[in-house]
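Review session, final week

We close the course with one last complete record, chosen because it touches almost every idea we covered. It is APO protein 2, chloroplastic, a protein from Thlaspi arvense with 553 residues. Go through it on your own first, then we will talk.
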Amino acid sequence: MEVWKYNAENDSVLQVREKDYERCDRSEPIRGYKNGHTKIELKRSGPFYFISGEEGRCQRGEKLLVVVLSPNHNRTHAAAPANAQIIQKGSGPRFNGSWSFVATAAALILLPLGLFGADTGTLSGVSPKSVPFATQSVPRRKFISLNPFYSFGFFSSLQGSSIGFRIHLDSGLVLSKGRQFLPFVVRSDHPQNADAPKEYTRREKKPFPVPIVDLRRAARERVKNNKDKPRRPLPPPKNGMVVKSLVPLAYKVYNARIRLINNLHRLMKVVRVNACGYCNEIHVGPYGHPFKSCKGPSASQRKGLHEWTNSVIEDVIVPLEAYHLHDRLGKRIRHDERFSVPRVPAVVELCIQGGVEIPEFPTKRRRKPIIRIGKSEFVDADETELPDPEPQPPPVPLLTELQVSEITPPSSEEETITVAEETLQAWEEMRAGAKKLMRMYRVRVCGYCPEVHVGPTGHKAQNCGAFKHQQRNGQHGWQSAVLDDLIPPRYVWHVPDVNGPPLQRELRSFYGQAPAVVEICAQAGAVVPEQYRATMRLEVGIPSSVKEAEMVV
């Protein structure tokens, strides 16, 4: 056994991730080990890791440091890793005697917040005169989890956080009783926070999903590789046929959209959604946010403050429509046909082209591939010898939207949580399915305005009123669309605690954002998916006051 003492020259402090365990980067020196009370039993070669918290404050998580014992630290010997155990010395529930704790940080991972013991066993009382915490010696215990943020002002904002602290009892270090620090490691596999996608102004053009230089380079390579080769037959849907493997997915996306709308109608009766009367901004919560971000009429007179009113379902789900094509390979819609061609929701049009049969919106279904006679010219194959098609039942029955009289709020808290979970699942199904359909069925978007067209080429209607539309004679600047162009997420501010105080203008940089659907479901009790936690900043502690925010380094 070796008694380890603080070595300012070799030992270091840093925030450690899993990939940094072997790299052993250095940071500022450790402080607080001047008297050398800490004893560490080294049973294998270094480096070793642990986080320290001052005795008496460890349960509150103050002054937490990641300590790295350098590989060249003086050691008497190195042996194989020790077995996991808790060594208890003394008696009584308070552990008034001496104690030793065995842990190795390379095995430490995250758990949800809480002061509890996992698997079996319990966490005993805290003795302010002896040790920060103690555990009962239970052989089957695997982890000890504790809440280090208990006494901070931002503790309430981390209730939904996935940050946690778990001490894996697979020992490589032994700490003896002293007035120094208690070890455990904090690690996260997901980014702590991220910004919401950029909102482009009216004077900015959307960027191409793939840079135009890369598109031209790929086109040249494609022409070069296909030179002197026979022309291959076009695959569906370019040959006019429907991709049969995606027909069930199209029905699934269509029904997911209907379920999403119906459930949102019910949730909006129990979750308050505010809409500004002058601009298109909305806020989910009992009160509107105080941020001065209104850009509507008379915004300067109101100093950018919003005038909050009631909202409708169209404020949450953007009513993005597109022209319905009877033949997706037919001629482009002219400007004089812009009022004679029906318009449907863009997601519905994508599902129709993917194989969904809706009697109100008929579309041409070819049973033979088209015959190309030129680069942009083709003729339909002769289908007269084919038997008449028999009506096929849909893979799944189509759902319908609820009438206003049929919308009822959830009757209990359990039902509210269930509806919120179903709504969030429908939102994810619709977006994931639409993304797969967009890989086969091309969707175009104007680079200057939100206009969307589902088809191989955009329409010719000259109804673009965006920046410098006079120079383009009102024509759209078509480019490939991404998922957020087809289904805008509509980001809103995340409210950390619905029952707590309203958002403060001075703490704006600490608040996160989330799509309106996700925020409604989260406030209704649904579990937030991992892909939204970074933008919602659930892992960031929000100060309780401006004075506390000024202390943030």
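Two points worth writing down before the exam:
The first strand starts at residue 12 and ends at 13.
The radius of gyration is 31 Å.
Good luck, everyone.
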